Fold each of these.
Amino acid sequence: TPIKAPTDIPTFSCASDERNFTFSITTDYYSNETEFFLYDDSFMIGSWDFASSERFEEYIFDYCLPIGRNYTLELTDTFGDGICCDAGYGTYYFAADDTVLFDS
């Protein structure tokens, strides 16, 4: 379950053989078109369909993921226009242990 920001984000720690990965997304005007999927080498680890989510809201997802695996984050927009620009400036970032790996 995501945490709506801004709120006090609960602190937690991962096991010694895991890293904390954070995916944050701010939805655009058409949040109902957006969803994401997070996969490791073999399985879907997490997903979220923003069909009933608020417009222009930030949602934060935290995962403790094992070190040494490959991960894929897939962000989709059913209309195909993405989460930026004509319908508001949606944004996202993906971080490992507070280091941003990529963002919009």
Amino acid sequence: GPVYPNGTASGPSLQDCGVEGCLYDLEFDPTEHTDLATSHPELRASLYRRAIELNMTVYQTPRGFMPDCNSAELQAVVEGGYWAPYAPLPYPLEA
């Protein structure tokens, strides 16, 4: 069988989409071969701004962070009867 998900390529695509990402018309290009970002920069910028705006309303745990289960801060939260985000707090907990 195919090694890569859709079997249409001999290897993974390593397209660099930069900071603001690529732009594809998924209705007409469902396999994402034609980046429209350069021909529609205003649409890409608009979608990027909207994604940033929506991202500001969502808490995302920092990737790769492992909590110190023995930390005083985490124990205070657990003993308080609720769980908080696993990321270190930017301020000390008051006793």
